[in-house]
Write a structure and sequence with these properties.
The complex is a heterodimer of chains A (508) and B (321).
Chain A (H helix, E strand, L loop, with lengths): L2 H26 L9 E5 L19 H4 L5 E3 L5 E3 L2 E6 L5 E6 L13 H13 L6 H4 L2 E6 L3 E6 L6 H4 L24 E7 L3 E6 L13 E5 L3 H10 L4 E2 L4 H8 L4 E4 L6 E6 L10 H10 L2 H8 L4 E3 L27 H11 L3 E7 L4 H16 L3 E7 L1 H8 L9 E8 L4 H7 L12 H10 L5 H18 L2 E7 L3 E4 L2 E2 L2 E2 L5 E2 L4 E2 L2
Parallel strand pairs in A: 1-10, 1-11, 15-16, 15-17
Antiparallel strand pairs in A: 2-3, 4-5, 5-7, 6-7, 8-9, 9-10, 11-19, 12-19, 13-17, 13-18, 14-18, 20-23, 21-22
Helix pairs in contact in A: 8-10, 9-11, 14-15
Chain B lengths: L1 H28 L4 H6 L7 H10 L6 H13 L13 H34 L6 H15 L2 H15 L15 H35 L2 H8 L4 H38 L5 H10 L3 H29 L1 H9 L2
The chains are: A alpha+beta (508), B mainly alpha (321).
Chain lengths: 508, 321
């Protein structure tokens, strides 16, 4: 036999054998979901771990997985003890004392005591820009004893016990190397972190609270939302953060999966107009916009009905126990294209421009087209401009940026207490550039009132002003939907859309 | 030869510097900046606070000053720090580069094997239906973007037949089989993008070599067709293709950006896209330096290899003094 032919036959046979072994190996390779770790998938990555700075929504679940607070929020929007076992305020709400659990430790074994808490608060106050600093910047002094920490405030704050829930107790001495292996105070700690790629958590053996119910959590970034849903269906991931609204119906009909959403929502979809520059500085234009948009249609078509309409056009939801509604004289901004047309005509407005974002938030693109049609009925031509996220943000952030003639969609994900959403509407704090000293005074008065009923009456005065002035078009509140395999238990979703996995476990 | 190497090294350094300066300036033309992207949406992010952050990050310096500071750091081996994660750029690139190198390696290997096989089939009968068909497929490959090829492969193999995953990456140390399984689609996508270039060059080169006098001599001596092909035609045809292969290695490294993003491979390509979105200047600049340097070094190495493989090239290189 020709040696060359024999050699080539052997080569071919070897090649076939390798291909066969590979294929078999491919098909019988162990599935990723066989591990006891919960695999958490998201279409966006986690860029960094510092909860005080917090740069993206994907970092939010880590704030309670890795860190404790003095207090923590529960599923019903109320407050529970955490590192603090109890707390009280003086009559003027200018001094708050928290009694701490004794013997608590960080994951590295160092004391999680009043000094560590003070260091975390000092760090938050010194950080130039922090998501949470604004909630506690009324702190004048912090005093500590062995088992208590007392905050002396420059101005009264009746909801301070809620504000501290957002200040996660980090080990302030580690901030420079935070994204490598931080010492944590929560039920889990970091095993490995690659920014925007993966994060692996393991139980924190030194956690003072209820022990972690999982052997670990593996965060993995998936390419896009379609790949994410496919991975969930295939069992490659156990939990999917932020399911797209379009996929919610198909996941709901799958018996191996479950949808997770909050009981109530404090996530508001809004439209901004620059209140300082034409045409947004004309109240008729703003009111016209509020009447022109068909909120129910937008909710049904862009968000697949996952939410409730905000007829009173305020940042406090219609269904909120703090909403004072028509009983207090608030106007309902029901869909009324005729009224909108009249107001736009009186203001002399025939053109506006939509400033949207491309590549993310596809619901905004749907809304743009629907609002364009709505405004057409009101005699206004809306030009739609979508930009990459960096250019979009630069167009109207931070507050004070001028953007005359633009209509900008946005979503707030704030805590349900009006102290948060209404604070946002204070002068200099909102992207609508609404600066109203009367509103500021009403807010500053309401925040000092300890008794809830009296505080509600005070918030109502602010809501009436917001309702009449329409600085913002608050269209509806949406429910962020997450999805998980039906074997996952113990996950709940807060009104601001954040998933809480602290008590999660994997059933059979 | 030494002078050739020195001159080539000097010109490569100039190309590298000019390229990274271009990248440095280009990304700063984009609206927005890392401070705005990181903090702009936060409550309390007043213009004054953001400006103070820009000042502390050195973003308020004149562009030329920023460039000099950065270049000075690069010369010392310091590529700066990610504004978003505060991790050193070199560490971030180091975490991501293995995935890119692995993907590039497989793209080049698959492209090389595929190209050689197809050309060998095509040149058995130049002008035949088979040759023409391969030519048409090559033309389609030239004009089809990588993401279109990727979508087609994902649709067929992942969504219709369910035999391969649609995306993802697992390092080899966590499972060789899983790693290979996840590499197949992205590697084939890249290979199908670069193969047309190799096929075209190799085919042309082989057709020219076939009619050389030494090939006629070899045939006249009674050597078999396969012996003539593998001992005389292919080795002499490889040299011009080697140069193209060198460019393709560099091209594959830069071209994998889209492929990495499509298939969620956590390489430097997807790192570049993430940092561009976040205006994380240091990271984007660091990635650019790595990619450009790799391209330059690869083409330089392949040119040297050509010189060793073909002594005539060495003479030409020396004569070019």
């Amino acid at each position: 036999m020709n040696v060359n032919r024999l050699t080539s036959k052997k080569t071919m046979a070897t090649g076939v054998a390798i291909a066969l072994a590979f294929t078999l190996g491919v098909n019988f390779a162990p599935s990723q979901a066989a591990s006891k770790n919960l695999v958490y998938g998201s279409a966006a990555g986690i860029p960094q771990l510092n909860p005080i700075i917090l740069t993206s929504a994907t970092e939010m679940p880590l704030t309670t997985l890795l860190w404790a607070g003095l207090t923590s929020r529960n599923e019903n929007g109320g407050l529970d003890p955490d590192l603090a076992t109890r707390w009280n305020a003086n009559a003027s709400a200018t001094q708050w004392t928290f009694t701490l659990k004794q013997g608590a430790k960080f994951s590295d074994g160092s004391p999680l005591d009043s000094k560590a808490v003070k260091a975390a608060f000092d760090y938050t106050l010194k950080t130039p820009v922090s998501q949470w600093k604004i909630e506690i910047d009324m702190i004048d002094t912090i005093r500590t004893t062995t088992n208590t920490i007392t905050f002396i405030l420059k101005t009264p704050n009746a909801v301070f016990s809620e504000a501290v829930a957002d200040i996660r107790i980090i080990k302030a001495s580690e901030v420079d190397s935070f994204n490598k292996n931080p010492s944590t105070s929560g039920p889990y700690k970091v095993a490995k972190f690659t920014p925007n790629v993966s994060l692996n958590l393991v139980p924190n053996p030194n956690y003072f609270g209820t022990k972690a119910g999982l052997s670990g959590i593996d965060f993995t970034k998936l390419g896009d939302s379609t790949a994410a849903v496919n991975a969930l269906r295939a069992g490659s991931i156990d939990f999917l953060d932020h399911l797209t609204f379009a996929d919610a119906a198909s996941v709901k009909s799958n018996s191996a999966l479950q949808l997770l959403r909050a009981k109530t929502s404090s996530q508001t979809v809004v439209l901004h107009m620059d209140n300082q520059n034409a045409p947004g500085n004309n109240i008729k234009v703003r009111q016209a916009m509020a009447y022109a948009v068909n909120r129910q249609s937008l909710l049904d078509n862009a968000y697949f009905g996952q939410g409730t309409v905000s007829a009173y056009n305020t940042v406090v939801a219609d269904a909120s126990p703090w909403q004072c509604s028509a009983k207090a004289g608030l106007t309902k901004y029901s869909y009324d294209p005729a009224k909108a047309k009249k107001l736009f005509a009186e203001a002399g407005i025939t053109k506006l421009t939509w400033w949207g974002v491309s590549g993310i938030l596809p619901e905004f693109t749907t809304m743009a087209e629907l609002i364009q049609a709505d405004l057409k009925k009101a005699g206004v031509d809306l030009t739609i401009k979508n930009s990459e996220v960096g250019a979009w943000v630069a167009g109207f952030y931070p507050p004070g940026t001028k953007y005359p003639g633009l209509v900008v969609p946005n979503i707030f994900s704030l805590q349900p207490d009006p102290a948060y959403s209404m604070y946002y509407m204070k002068s200099g704090g909102n992207e609508s550039n609404w600066n109203n000293s009367q509103y500021d005074t009403l807010f500053d008065k309401a925040i000092t009132i300890l008794k809830p009923a009296a505080r509600k009456a005070a918030w109502c005065e602010g809501l009436k002003l917001e309702n009449s002035q329409t600085p913002i078009v608050a269209m509806f509140n949406i429910f962020t939907v997450h999805a998980a395999s039906s074997s996952v238990k113990g996950i709940w979703v807060a009104p601001n859309g954040m998933a809480h996995l602290e008590g999660a476990s994997l059933g059979n | 030869m030494r002078n050739f190497i020195l001159r080539r090294a000097a010109s490569s350094a100039i190309v590298l510097v000019l390229s990274v300066v271009t990248v440095f300036l280009s990304i700063r033309i984009l609206p927005g900046d890392p401070v705005l992207l990181k903090y702009g949406a936060q409550t309390g992010a007043t213009p004054a606070a953001l400006d103070a952050l820009r000042e502390s990050a050195g973003l308020n310096h004149p562009m030329l000053v920023q460039l000099m500071i950065w270049l000075g750091g690069v010369v010392r081996g310091d590529f700066g720090t990610s504004f978003i994660s505060q991790l050193p750029v070199s560490e971030l690139v180091g975490q991501r580069i293995p995935a890119t190198l692995e993907l590039t390696f497989f793209i080049v290997i698959i492209a090389s094997i595929l190209s050689v096989l197809l050309v060998l089939i095509a040149i058995r009968k130049p002008g035949s239906a088979t040759d023409r068909f391969i030519g048409y497929v090559t033309s389609i490959g030239f004009s089809t973007p990588s993401f279109i090829i990727g979508i087609i492969l994902v649709y067929i193999f992942a969504l219709r037949w369910h035999i391969l995953p649609s995306q993802g990456f697992k390092p080899m140390d966590l499972g060789v089989v899983q790693n290979m399984k996840l590499m197949i689609l992205p590697a084939f996508t890249g290979a199908m993008v670069v193969s047309p270039y190799l096929i075209k060059y190799l085919r042309t080169s082989i057709l020219e070599t076939r009619v050389s006098s030494y090939v006629r001599t070899a045939k006249g001596k009674g050597l078999s067709s396969s012996a003539v092909l593998f001992r005389h035609i292919l080795p002499n045809s490889i040299v011009p293709t080697l140069t193209m292969l060198g460019m393709i290695v560099g091209f594959a490294l830069g071209g994998v950006f889209v492929i990495e993003y499509m298939f969620a491979v956590p390489g430097i390509g997807s790192l570049a896209i993430e940092s561009a979105s976040a205006r994380d200047y240091s990271v984007l600049q660091g990635v650019s330096v790595v990619v450009i340097a790799f391209f330059i070094i690869t083409t330089f190495v392949f040119d040297l290899v050509c010189g060793f493989v073909d002594p005539r090239q060495r003479v030409l290189q020396v004569k070019s003094r």
